[in-house]
Amino acid sequence: MIGDKADLGANIPNFDFSLLLIFPVEVLASAMLMGVIFYVVYTKGLRGFSGIAIGGIVGLDILFLSFISGASMNPARALAPALLSGVVENLWLYWTAPFVGTIIAAVAFRGKFKAQRQREAKS
């Protein structure tokens, strides 16, 4: 985490891959995280396993996708390390991709929330 090559924890995409792959991978990581969060909300906490589900998807995103995009999934999490390390060239990626991913998840889950509200209104 500390050293001349660590950049104080700042996310840095792997430019061995094309930006046309890096951006969608970060969008996917953010969409999967938000999808799990929406699912936890929709199922009212997965009967006590919400922390495991959310933490699990964060871990899986990092395990499988961080070597491509850095898997920040959170603009706030990317901001402080980038500012402190001075590595701000890629900050645009970690500000835009999570917003795109979470919007995709919100659109995908919109129907579930409408159906839930209708059921609750009938009861």
Q: What would a concise description of this structure say?
A:
The chain has 4 helices and no strands. It starts with 18 loop residues before the first helix and ends with a helix.
How much β-strand is present in the residues? under 5%
Number of domains: 1
Question: Per CATH, what is the topology?
Answer: Glycerol uptake facilitator protein
Order of helical and strand elements: HHHH
Q: What distance lies between the first and last C-alpha atoms, to the nearest angstrom?
A: 53 Å
Tally of strands: 0
Q: Can you tell me the residue ranges where pLDDT is under 50 for at least 5 consecutive residues?
A: none
What is the general shape?
A: elongated
By CATH, the superfamily comes out as Glycerol uptake facilitator protein
Mean pLDDT: 86
Instruction: State the helix count.
Output: 4
Write the layout of secondary structure elements.
Blueprint: H1 19-42, H2 50-69, H3 75-85, H4 91-122
